[in-house]
Every structure is written in C-alpha cells, then in structure tokens.
Design brief:
This protein has helices at 19-34, 61-74, 82-95, 112-122, 172-182, 196-202, 231-234, 256-265, 279-284, 298-307, 322-329, 359-372, 377-384, 389-409, and strands spanning 9-13, 38-43, 55-57, 99-102, 126-129, 189-193, 211-214, 241-246, 270-275, 289-292, 310-313, 334-337, 351-354. With 410 residues, it is α/β, with parallel strands linked by helices.
Amino acid sequence: MKGLALKLRVLQINAVPYGSTGGIMFSLADVLEAKGDCVLCTTGFSWRKCERSDYFMTSNILEKTIHTYLARITGRIGCFSYLATLNMIRKIREFNPDIIHLHNLHGWFVNIPMLFKYIKETNTPVIWTFHDCWPFTGHCPHFTMINCDKWKTGCYDCPQHLSYPKSYFDCSKSMYSKKAIWFSDVKNLTIVTPSQWLSNLVKLSFLKDYSVKVINNGIDLNIFHPIKSDFRKNNELEEKHIVLGVAYAWDNRKGLDVFIELSKRLDNNYKIVLVGTDDEADKLLPKNIISIHRTKNQKELAEIYSAADVFVNPTREDNYPTVNMEALACGTPVVTYKTGGSGEIPDEKCGTVVPYNDSEALISEVKRVCLQKPYSEKACLERAKSFDMNNCFQEYEQLYRCVYERVTKS
C-alpha cells in the first residue's frame, strides 16, 4: 500500500508522562519512530524525570500550581496556563506536525481554548483518544456510579464537582457549554475510543457528528504471559484458591469494598491477594487479605497473575481496564461487573461478566471458577492474542495515514 511508505510528523499531547496514558503515548512514539516517522511528545509538569529526546514539558511547577488553584476556585478547568500553552503552540509550529494526537487534556496544564483555536486555524488533522468521558461532560471523567445522564443534554448541579478534577464551585453548566463550543467545528477530527461502550456514549453526546473509531488498548505479550514462580510457596498458598485483584488506586470505585465482603464470605480454602494497595487501604483491609503495595517490576506482577486461580475486577467505573487483559495473557480467567468496557474483554471461553453491582452473582461465580475450572489457560491465552499492543499501534499507524491522505487529497 502506497500510504504505508509515507513518513509522517506526529505530535502527541497528554496530561502526564506516566501511568497508562503516558505509557500508551510513549509506546506509540517508539513504534512510529522505529518505522521512520518523526514524533514529538509533550505533557504538563511532572516531578518524574523523562529522559527522551522526543519529549518536552510545557510548564513548570509554579504555573501548574497556579492553574490548579485558579481552576479550583473558579471551576474553569482548562482555562489557564497561558504561558505554557503559548510555549506549546510555539513548539508545535516549529515541529510542523502532519497529525496531532490528543490524549488526556484534563490535568491543569493547557489552556484548551487557545489550543483548539490554533488547531482550527491551521486545520491540522487531529486524532483524539478518549481515555474517559471528560471531553463531553461538564466536569467528571466518569458518571456510572452516580447514574447521571445530564451530559446527554446539558450538565448542571454536578454532584461530583468536589471530585477530580476538583472544583470548589459547581460550574458544570458553563463548562459543558464551553466544551461544546471549543470542541465543535474542528474540520479534521477523528475520535478514538478503547471500548465500544465509550464509542456508544460519544455518539449520544454533543460530539456525535464526528467520526468515532474503536481501537482497543493493548499490552506487551512478551511481558505478560504464564510464568512459573514461588509465589504460592513463599506465601504458604499451595493448597489455596487464589482470588486476585489488581488496581493502581484502591477505593470503592475499584471495588475495594467488594473484596472486603468477599473475605467474609469465602472460607479458608480461598485467599484474596490485592496488588496496588497503600497504607490507607491497609487500614480498611481484614487480616485475611494479603496486601501487596507494589511489585518490583512487571515480571513479578505477571508471576502473581499466573499464580492466581481467578482474577476478579469489581470495578464500577472503567473504560477498558488493562488489568483484565494482563490477567488473561497470564492464563488466568476473569470475573468482572458489566460496567464500562470491562465486560468487553473476557469472552465466554475465558471469563464471566456478572450484572453491575451484583456482589452475590460475583461471589457465586468466583466459587464456580475456582471449584469447577470451566475456563482453560489455553482459552485465556487465545483471547489474549487480540490484546497484542503491536496490533493496537498498527491500527493507529494506519489511521494516521488514512486521515492524512484523505485531508491532503481533499
């Protein structure tokens, strides 16, 4: 295909250079650069050092602090960081990208109307990956737990304005209107969602007229695969059914309370292991739950996934959780709630999706999976092939070229 020989200049923008979104941004940059494309990545201020020649931070700690403070007292998220955004736009002009790829824009680092004014003036093709629902709400990244659908017609009286991104005053009505203006009339915008669930929501929002493509997130199958280890022996779990949960910030949104209830309902033949906890979570956990704050590396995490009998993800709000994919890639079946895109990951051969918030069904399914072994390691690994991050990045690469060629030929 002629388009695949085309070399592109791609600019990526994300709030932070770490976490799942930062990892996706840099991994995609590595793939593109290996094929000869030129990539530049930018984020807001971060204390974490990132020694990459293709990366720069737009702001410093002072400007981020000022933006955060002003946003909290006014509710105007994304309306500050003037100097940082001028600096960003200056470097974008110098780089002269063929494609601008946006990731998370919430995070007190960019003046959004200034950025979109530049995008509209230059008509640069834009790919925008939605990692949550923030782009089409008046405030929140997620709204499943509060069962809110105001975003369909216009936000107001937001019950979550004190949650991230925190604002002391409810400005959801005006911010909803501002976003509808900022994000409208972008001539060459393609929205990408990691899940079909989020794609369906976008089509009900004020962004419904844009093209939406589903590209599932991927994982590194060279890291996440079945690995034998001494985890069971070292923790005296040789004769136990290991029920595993992994999160990067444990709270009731991630289902911490569900695991506490599980610990009361499962007998001594089971052992719950939670990874990603901290001192605050430990205060809530009963003594019969093994708490692991963090693993030394991803290989150790893969060893724990591999040792488990079942991976349980009682998340109540999620887009397309990476942990589900990682567990399946290590040969461990998944039990999860039907919420967000979480239920899209396991198929009928490698896991179970139970009704939202139905803890009774979840507990029953955990017992069935551990005792009856209905899902084989082979079936889990077969499903995991579809999560290869190389396939994900190839889809992005093809999308870049299709969009660029369509724009240049029009």
